[in-house]
Design goal:
Growth Hormone, Chain: A; 15 helices; about 425 residues; mainly alpha; 2 domains; about 80% helix
Amino acid sequence: MPKLPAGLSALNATQFLGAMNDNILKLLIIFFLIQTQGSDRAGIVTATTGAAFVLPFLFFSAPAGGLADRFSKSRITVLVKAAEVLITGFAVLAFSLRLESALYLLLFLMAAQSAFFAPAKYGIIPELAPRHQLSRANGLIEAFTFLAIIFGTSLASALTQATANRFWLTACFCLAVSTAGFVCSLGLPTVAAVAPQRRIRLFPTEIIRTLCQVRHDRWMLLALTGLAWFWLVGAFAQLNLIGYGIQRLGLSEVHSNYLFLASALGIAAGALLAAHISGRRVELGIVPLGAVGLVVAPLLLHLLPPNLPLVVGAIVLFGLSAGIFSLPLQTFIQLRARSDLRGEILAASSFVNWLGILLAAVLTFLFSGPLKLTAAQGFSLLALLTLLASAVTLHGFPAMAGRSRQLLRNWLAG
């Protein structure tokens, strides 16, 4: 197997450390605020911190995309990682002085730097990797991103316990991680700006303009909406698994949160598997195969008995299917987008993805609130929605359905 360009290794390390730091710091802030405000306000804390983390992706996706086209993506990455070091340093100070309001602001700023990093991160991959290595490059990025989520989620709890709730000390670890990410970003090769005259628009109306530009490209719209559905499903699973663990398995909230680690591990493995199957091409034919798993796995979570090993197996299948589903879509968007519009299109994709994450929160509220469904029933309803969306998509794109059947026949014969 050919070796990936050195620049991609630096990008992968930078992304891994940044994603891990995001997750650790976000959870530290949640733990601290619940501890200071009381466990009876846990729901309010998670809702407000969730909003503080999501809103920057909606506010800043448009200017982030324009910046990624107007300036060198490697330079933007270095500046963003430098900002992350400063933000994490201020977090150490805020924890030390127990400044609750400042922590909300720092969480907002942390998400903002991630929002500015996203178009540069995904946009630089086609500039570093040749076309035949795009699937593999994206597979590694996605795999290590979800491994970072696993490490970040685990370390947040472990470090909090190890430091006896001295959050400022745990935040010092985050500062070390962010500094390492900044150093890794310096290893990125310099790439030229693709559209130096691009105007930087500050409002999401630019997102709408970009989406209107690509509305005649049915395959691009399919990839954008499909990737947003992946994030909706993933966000719903993360939220719903907590209730599922409590209701179905009798676990505590803390232990229920660990169920998502099995899903994240599955997504990482699925992304690598999708890259292996795709080989030197972008293989959209495996997207429907991933969709099958996204229907079967949630149904299994409803139908299986409350047996932890069986449930974990179904959750891993859920994640594996999600990784197979999403990787070709992300790679296709990078390849299909014009080089001078790639940053804007990826920013539009990020914006739509975060709308999907917000919709997941709305669905979680509707299922558990007004509809009074159990978490298991919520998974079944999600499976039915995925089945309906997949059926409509395959009807409109018969070529993708045919390619999936061919891949399946080759696999069975092979």
